[in-house]
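Usage example:
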Amino acid sequence: MKIYVPRDAAAKALGADAVAAAVLAEAKARGLDVTLVRNGSRGMVWLEPLVEVETDAGRMAFGPVTAADVASLFDAGFGSHPLAQGQTEAIPFMARQTRLTFARCGRIDPLSLAEYEAHGGLKGLRRALGMSSEQIVAEVKDSGLRGRGGAGFPTGIKWDTVARAKADQKYIVCNADEGDSATFADRMLMEGDPFTLIEGMAIAGLGVGATRGYVYIRSEYPDAIEAMEAALDIARAAGVIGANVLGSGRAFDMWVRVGAGAYVCGEETSLLNSLEGKRGVVRAKPPLPALEGFLGKPTVVNNVISLATVPVIFERGAAFYKDFGLGRSRGTIPLQIAGNAKHGGLYETAFGLTLGQIVDDIAGGTASGRPVKAVQVGGPLGAYFPRALFDTPFGYEEFAGKEGLIGHAGLTLFDDTADMLKMARFAMEFCAIESCGKCTPCRIGAVRGVETVDRIAKGDASAIPILTDLCNTMKFGSLCALGGFTPYPVMSALTHFPDDFHAAHLEAAE
Amino acid sequence: MTANAVAQRTDDIVDELATLEGPLLPILHAVQHAFGFVPQEALPRIAEKLNLSRAEVHGVMSFYHDFRTEPAGRHVVKLCRAEACQAQGADALAAHAKARLGVDFHETTASGAVTLEPVFCLGLCACGPAALVDGKVVGRVDAARLDQILSEMGA
Ligand SMILES: Cc1cc2nc3c(=O)[nH]c(=O)nc-3n(C[C@H](O)[C@H](O)[C@H](O)COP(=O)(O)O)c2cc1C
Ligand code: SF4
Ligand code: FES
Ligand code: FES
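Running the assembly step on the lines above writes:
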């Protein structure tokens, strides 16, 4: 009997290790021959720990399982049981997804290269090995893939710049800093299907002529660091990376580097400084990292999901990938549904669903059962959307058109108990804590921002225009998007939820 | 540990990692791993071997939230303060933790048992409030669960 208990951090945070231990103990006590696989997460976090058992009818799911439930699952022969969810792939949340980047995540043993290959892994890399640098770059351009780290820059164009640069050494740097609240796609991918990222980085190396790569993972992700390190050892031992990639005579090797708790190090130039062992201060652009990046050499900096989507593009073709999506947002996007959501987790789908479909149909509204008041889209630098804007389709341009952004595609649901003035204050406070200090509008402006929101909270309505001015100064006077985009959450809170700012004013004035 | 012993251990760490491209962060992590914090005595050793000024090394260390200049308590509890956890009650949980421990964030209980720290997202945003307890992830932490964790730590 084959039983799956995820090793994903969210599953572990909800007790998966204890469940796994109970499965082994129970099997032993009953003299049953059980193979336990620690898979990645399927992404249905509200059902974690999600235990699966392999049957003739496919994999059957049970969740959320505690260690105390395990004996009864064995008693029921993993059949009829109060926690039974039916066939995993038939659970509506799964069945309605289009899983391209996350096709293998949750299905395979993340550290089995054999299973990886059996599920389509390495096909993309093998194909790329038969292509020229120009052809590889053209394939990525044709796919329409845009950076999933937040800025949405076309990945193929970035690769083209690096490919054309002349240098004795080039680098592929994977941005796995994933600091945005509400986001966990990078983490899930690295823990659940790390070979995909390795394959994507190797293809990038072939495409631009880089032989060395780094994955910069935030220190807040101990499980992802462990999984990536283990996968790299396996990939190197099997000759997937190293001096002779899959026996091609081409070289590409890569290593994990660990961040040290600084949100701004997700910004690509700050990340490069950090990787070089410097303070994670943002660099002015130009020069572009593509021309003068890590140690001054041409460098591709891409997000985990951008790079992990490359293998499926090479496996199934640029045209196949590009066929999904909406407008200039091509392909699929792993939505991360977080906060006060009934069905929180990762949902990969083509661009184009409306925010309302995501919040009401997929997330199922709030976990508290109260009305949804606001949804923050795109992490701490993203805007708060009210229900009035729920018809906005999920796409880069579509969200920009509503004074928002999709960022790394995290969505935080808040119910009607949320205080939007408090959220605006937090946005300023976060910017003040995490500012790299290079420019005044961000470093000083954010501190002033907190004070100004506090004045509004005390009933000083004259501080509202001051907050608006301050946001304008930050928006146009900051070097990077930390200072530049903090006005999005602040101004959207103020614009869409004015009552929370005036109610505070009235209450205090009474 | 004597200043000499710190210097010796630091030298070994630096010698092992100095050939990396951009070795300073890996070295600081390794030093903190070895001592539980980055001792003052380690800085001149790192600076000399990497051909940096002591001020440069200090400047790098102080930029990052992770590096400590003092030892932490016997246990470290990091509570997520970011938005998705706030939407699930993180603020009330933080207030409960501070009241129970009698400390603010970045402080250690008088008994030395627990250091309380804020963290901005652990990637557990669909099962918040989230915490990192001595490096282990914990999700859906409510007051009762936190009390249980802290009691086990003797705090
Ligand atoms: C303050 C700040 C934080 C950022 N954090 C991240 C991050 O955690 N991960 C990421 O991939 N990109 C982050 N970015 C965007 C990067 O600067 C960069 O655009 C991205 O890594 C490029 O990769 P992509 O084109 O594949 O998205 C951040 C940007 C800013 C301004
Ligand atoms: S906006 Fe803030 S974080 Fe960005 S460069 Fe300026 S000071 Fe640094
Ligand atoms: S960019 Fe340097 S002070 Fe504003
Ligand atoms: S916001 Fe708390 S874990 Fe992400």
